[in-house]
TrEMBL record, chain A:
Protein name: Biopolymer transport protein ExbD
Topology with respect to the bilayer: Single-pass membrane protein; Single-pass type II membrane protein
Family statement: Belongs to the ExbD/TolR family.
Molecular functions per Gene Ontology: transmembrane transporter activity
Subcellular location(s) per record: Cell membrane
Hydrolase as UniProt keyword: no
Keyword field: Cell membrane, Membrane, Protein transport, Transmembrane, Transmembrane helix, Transport
Keyword rRNA-binding: no
Annotated Gene Ontology cellular component terms: plasma membrane
UniProt feature coiled coil, ranges: none
Alphabetical list of Gene3D superfamilies matching this protein: 3.30.420.270
Naturally occurring in which organism (per UniProt): Oligosphaera ethanolica
Lineage: Bacteria, Pseudomonadati, Lentisphaerota, Oligosphaeria, Oligosphaerales
TM annotation in the entry: 12-33
Pfam families recorded: ExbD (PF02472)
Length: 137, 131
């Protein structure tokens, strides 16, 4: 708005760029919030045949399980009893059809996965899923 | 808007294109990560239920150990299990598969077993702990 003198067409471009940058920043911020659910240090096991998920249930509780058995949800570390409390409150809120997605590292021993599965089963959440990297299709 | 004076309009286009390319690259990068995840559904035994020893004839039994897969009690290579499961799955896709997993098995082994069952069209997958 400052220079309106001779070249009238160059003025809206700066405000356009402002808006575009604002949009970029908005998308970056929202995307990083989205990514926090996913623990980047986890390398999933590969599944050749299972189809990639296009849309998952928005209620899904994503439990990250690291190689050493450390549990976290949205990068916040939890103990087994804390996980149980959380799942119980989820069940109270949204019913027992809330899916629990276990994102475990390919090298995680089953003893760790089993503990998370037992907790899910004991709270009555029966829709348990294991995340894998879809490499086939 | 398009043709008022050509030299004045030519300048801002390059920066616009820069920004558009930036957005394009950003969306390509973020889109790739989301697609590549598969979710394998498993059934869990209810925690209170006693371990059932008798195995019904209609059920398929798989055992998962570290780097080893057993089908109906015999260790077999993955390719053989895949073809056997495909055949059995085509006979009766509704049959239940009981997957017994050893504590020392890794997630990769379990995912391989679940994935093979999925490929064979078997959907009822029960995961149990092998004691």
């Amino acid at each position: 708005m400052k220079k309106r003198g001779d070249d009238t067409l160059e003025t809206p471009i700066t405000s356009m760029i402002d808006i575009v940058f604002l949009l970029i920043i908005f998308f970056v911020v929202t995307a990083s919030v989205d990514k926090d659910v996913v623990d980047e240090s986890i390398i999933l096991a590969q599944a050749k045949n299972a189809p990639a998920v296009e849309q998952s249930d928005p209620r899904t509780v994503t439990v990250n399980l690291r190689k050493d058995g450390e549990i976290n949800i949205a990068l916040q570390p939890l103990s087994l009893s804390q996980l149980k409390q959380l799942l119980i409150s989820m069940r109270a809120q949204a019913g027992n059809s809330v899916p629990v997605l276990i994102r475990c590292d390919g090298d995680t021993q089953f003893r760790h996965i089993d503990r998370v599965m037992q907790v899910a089963a004991s709270t009555g959440l029966y829709r348990v899923r294991l995340a894998a990297e879809a490499t086939g299709m | 808007m398009k043709r008022k004076s050509a030299d004045q309009l030519a300048v801002p286009m390059s920066s616009m294109i820069d920004i558009v390319f930036l957005l394009l690259i950003y969306f390509i990068v973020t889109a790739r990560e989301e697609i590549s995840e598969a979710h394998l559904a498993v059934n869990l035994p209810s925690p209170g239920a006693a371990k059932t020893d008798e195995v019904k004839p209609k059920m398929l039994e798989m055992q998962v150990h570290a780097n080893k897969l057993y089908l109906q009690g015999a260790e077999k290579p993955v390719e053989e299990i895949a073809s056997t499961l495909k055949y059995l799955g085509s006979l009766d896709p509704d049959q239940t598969v009981i997957i017994q997993v050893s504590m020392s098995a890794r997630a990769t082994d379990l995912v391989t077993a679940l994935d093979l069952c999925r490929a064979a069209g078997l959907e009822k997958l029960n995961v149990m702990t092998l004691k």
